[in-house]
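It would be a great kindness if you could assist me with a short task in structural biology. I am sending you one protein, given as its amino acid sequence and as whole-number tokens for its backbone shapes. I would ask you to consider whether the tokens describe a fold that such a sequence might reasonably adopt. The full record is reproduced below for your convenience.
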Amino acid sequence: MSSLVPLFPLDVVLFPGVPLPLHVFEPRYKEMIAECLELKKPFGVVRASSDGMAEIGCTAEIVDVTKRYEDGRMDILTRGVDRFEVLQINEERSFLQAEIAVVEDEPGCPAAQLVEQAVRLHAEIARLAGTGTDGPQEHPDRLSFQLAGSLPLDLDFKQKLLSTLSEAKRLAAVVEYLQAVLPGLRRASMARWN
């Protein structure tokens, strides 16, 4: 059995514990997803942009096939599992594969005050944006991913967050980012009501 993980390069950043619905239509990805379903194995989601492919990605498990089309396309619901670093790309198949290494966080927990502040800011932004998302369901060591994953934040910021190996540092970055966007959202919200 190969240690290669199939890759799905997309212009998204997937976080551990965060859902990602996908519409699979390209023949090579229909083949890849069919294989992952059959072998019950994950695939890797890596951000692809005009600058190339990110070095850090996140494995995705297929939670559900929500719709199958007659031509083989499908809608699937996936969820992020583990962060990984791409060690080597393999181009032998119709889709990319890679040798990967799972990336772990440094030990340590964020301060309770930081957690509280992040959850409060997130709740206000969700309310102002009208997304109505509930608070995070995940345990605190993944809180930053839950908060950032539920909002339409800048992809460069999300990629940087994915690559940061400390939950305390990630949470501090999320707080700083949310504090920066909040005044504009408040003004936009006020303008809508006037």
Notes: The two ends are 63 Å apart (CA to CA).
